[in-house]
Amino acid sequence: MPQLTVEGFGTVDVPSNKRLVLAVEQDAHVDILHACGGNARCTTCRVEFVSGEPSKMTAAEKERLTAKGLSGVRLACQILCDQDMTVRAISRLEGSGRPDPGRTPEETITPPAVWV
Fold first, then answer.
1. CA nearest neighbour of 18 among 106, 113, 115, 114
2. Domains defined along the chain, listed by start
3. Where are the alpha helices (DSSP H) in 34-95?
4. Which of 36, 81, 107, 114 is deepest in the core (most CB within 10 A)?
5. Quick check: helix, strand or coil at residue 115?
């Protein structure tokens, strides 16, 4: 089982290949945003990697980060927990002014993952 460390919240074991956004929310109990429901549209699930950043990304993540001009961050909805990772949850419900984090993302990456 991979270990996920969320800075300021501790380390937890997560099921292999679980979506990072779900692992952060459900296993690490961090109030991460996912306003679009984990579909690589809104970028509210942004995280910064401290260590263990995956070398691959989905085409949807790459397109969205490029379109928004974002660098140094990744979209937790487009990442699978397949190795130990340490992240900073930089986009949280607390302090966002939103009423909720968004619709719970599906178990599998959406849109269907095309790895680049």
1. 106
2. 3-89 (3.10.20.30)
3. 59-68
4. 81
5. strand
pTM of full prediction above 0.90 = yes
> How many helices (DSSP H) and strands (DSSP E) are in the chain?
2, 7
Q: Kindly list the distances between the CA atom of residue 60 and the CA atoms of 5, 69, 87, 94, 104, in Å, as whole numbers in the listed order.
A: 25, 14, 20, 27, 19
Q: How many C-beta neighbours within 10 Å does residue 10 have?
A: 11
CB 79 within 8 A of CB 49: no
CA distance 24 to 56: 19
Residue with tokens 């910064």: 48
Are the beta carbons of 64 and 41 closer than 8 angstroms? Answer: yes
CB atoms within 10 A of CB 78: 27
The structure tokens listed for 62 are: 């790459």
pLDDT in tens, 39-91: 999 999 999 999 999 999 999 999 999 999 999 999 999 999 999 999 999 99
Secondary-structure breakdown of the chain: helix, strand, coil percentages, each rounded to the nearest 5: 20, 25, 55
